[in-house]
Protein: Urocanate hydratase
Organism: Cellulophaga lytica
Amino acid sequence: MDFKSQILQGIPSLLPPKKNYTTNANHAPKRKDILFLDEKKLALKNALRYFPVAWHAELSKEFANELLSYGRIYMFRFKPKYDIYARPISEYPAKTPQAAALQLMIMNNLDPAVAQHPEELITYGGNGAVFQNWAQYLLTMQYLATMTEEQTLHIYSGHPMGLFPSTKDAPRVVVTNGMMIPNYSKPDDWEKYNALGVTQYGQMTAGSYMYIGPQGIVHGTTITVMNAFRKVLQPNETPSGKIFLTAGLGGMSGAQPKAGNIAGCITICAEVNAAAATKRHTQGWVDVLIDSIDDLVDRTKKAQENKEVVSIAYIGNIVEVWERFYDENIFIHLGSDQTSLHNPWAGGYYPAGISFKESNELMSTNPDAFKQKVQESLKRQVAAINKHTANGTYFFDYGNAFLLEASRAGGDVMAENNIDFKYPSYVQDILGPMCFDYGFGPFRWVCSSGKPEDLQKTDAIALKVMEEIKATAPEEIQQQMQDNITWIREAEQNKLVVGSQARILYADAEGRAKIAEAFNKAIKTGELSAPVVLGRDHHDVSGTDSPFRETSNIYDGSKFTADMAIHNVIGDSFRGATWVSVHNGGGVGWGEVINGGFGMVLDGSTEASKKLKNMLFYDVNNGISRRSWARNKEAIFAIEREMKRTPELKVTVPNLVEEHLLDNLFA
């Protein structure tokens, strides 16, 4: 069968032969054995319902073995034979370009060059899944291949519930991931209900099909590192020869060395998984690979002396580096951590003192002992970081729940009031007040033709639009405009594409709409050869309610609410989004955040032009208005400016209270 026929088939009519477990893939770690006997039987019943009764006797034994061996039922037998990658949109079987674009985005998320654990359908973050199993993938692709413009596919945590009649203006797909009753949203609840096959962790852009490889986080990390150095260096200093020390090279964290190179510093990134570190080195995302702490010390000192711009991957534990660098009196200008601490007990963080292999064994055979070692390691890491910050190192939490889990482990990370952390989140100090409050966030697009020349044309279009906007932009956003003009001008030479022909930049509502409109016109005239898919990271102005990251600079007490993200998804859905998604748990952990996203297909039509203006405007200004109501001065400036430009927009703005009026009222 050819590729299109395999897609249209869905679940195959004949039982395919059993596949051998691949040994050359980067597999997900074995998950916790958390189900009781009756629950394991229920998990099998849940898995077998995808298949004909005649297959159950054979598959029940196989799936039981998967559950016992890996902690999940992935249905490896049903992984398709064809290569999974972002093919040009014309190669997909579909009745609508919107459905074909969705197929392209799904396959890009599962491309082995993009995905962290592709065999287990996990894109990044250790557990950020596109689907729970291969049956869900097969059915979803079949539904997309057959859907019309008057149907909507509803997906429940990876499971395609089905095609429902709707309208041409409705979203083609609506996705939810991990939407639990609040009292059932603890980490072990994910372990249990994911093992049962009834929910999944969609991360931020994995389960919404909008991941574009590490390029997305490269840009955000570049903006963060550049501005972090601006906070600590003198105006006449440059980052060359200055150290940015961090951890994590798997999934999204693998972007850190590339971002450090663009920012112009020495980046040292520790990674315990040799395969992940080697992959980034082979891909050209990191310059130097070192597996000896002594060699790392020598190479770092040389880089400092020569004021190099270089990225170094150390195959080993980050705790060793923090401790050894202190003993060697190596000064670290910037410090952070981007291991997946939203998932600390199942492969997101590996403790010092035991090997990578030993950790993987311990987390499944003795999870309590593994948890203890993780918490001991976190305390050691924090103790070493505190020594460096006492010497002047600027340490920031990268929104991966590092400080949260360190505090739960008993690490010394609390401020004197015993409420706040002693170190800021990067959103509190940098992205919140400097970007999100002004409406700037991670706007992205994918050229569905798969042609590099189309991506180059979109770069040029976006650059022209931003330069025109910058010419009359107020002083408050000149730096943001210039940083992104520089980024897009240099994007191609930095070789950021992995998988689909995609690009990202930070833009506000005006920039996003004008760039998108220019793309739509270029598609209509034939300058671009195929539709363009718009989207964004959920890590944005209004997509995510996350008190320890995206909304950590909300100080009116509402940062633990999730109204903004829910309104964002609902509002985008009837303003023209091609698909919408809402997730529990992206970024900082299950039960810690609600986040939403969208995808929009531009096809050169008048309808697409109307939709992009309406939807992109709301998608950004929903968040600015919430941030303004929280009394964030930058957001107040941004929303008042927008109301002057758009008379139809009327937002409730806060009246600011003089602090002295409140003194002694409750004495």
